């Protein structure tokens, strides 16, 4: 059905529609907000990965584990 779905003129039309909908003044603001959100998301994902690596460390032999 959509054999040539993303041709260059499709992207041009999409860009024009977005500019008309949001206006040229709001687009840089929206891009800054998106960039800031992506940085926050990236740092939070890295922090979660680091927390997972710390908690997944093997238990040393000298620590005792009791079973109930």
Automatic annotation (TrEMBL):
It is found in: Cell membrane. Its main location: membrane. Pfam families: TatA_B_E. It is a single-pass membrane protein. Keywords: Cell membrane, Membrane, Protein transport, Translocation, Transmembrane, Transmembrane helix, Transport. The keyword Signal does not apply. The Tat system comprises two distinct complexes: a TatABC complex, containing multiple copies of TatA, TatB and TatC subunits, and a separate TatA complex, containing only TatA subunits. Substrates initially bind to the TatABC complex, which probably triggers association of the separate TatA complex to form the active translocon. Belongs to the TatA/E family. This is Sec-independent protein translocase protein TatA.
């Amino acid at each position: 059905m959509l054999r040539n779905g993303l041709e260059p003129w499709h992207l041009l039309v999409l860009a024009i529609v977005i500019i008309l909908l949001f206006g040229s003044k709001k687009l840089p603001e929206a891009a800054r907000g998106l960039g800031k959100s992506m940085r926050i998301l990236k740092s939070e994902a890295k922090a979660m990965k680091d927390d997972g690596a710390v908690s997944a460390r093997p238990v040393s032999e000298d620590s005792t584990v009791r079973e109930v």
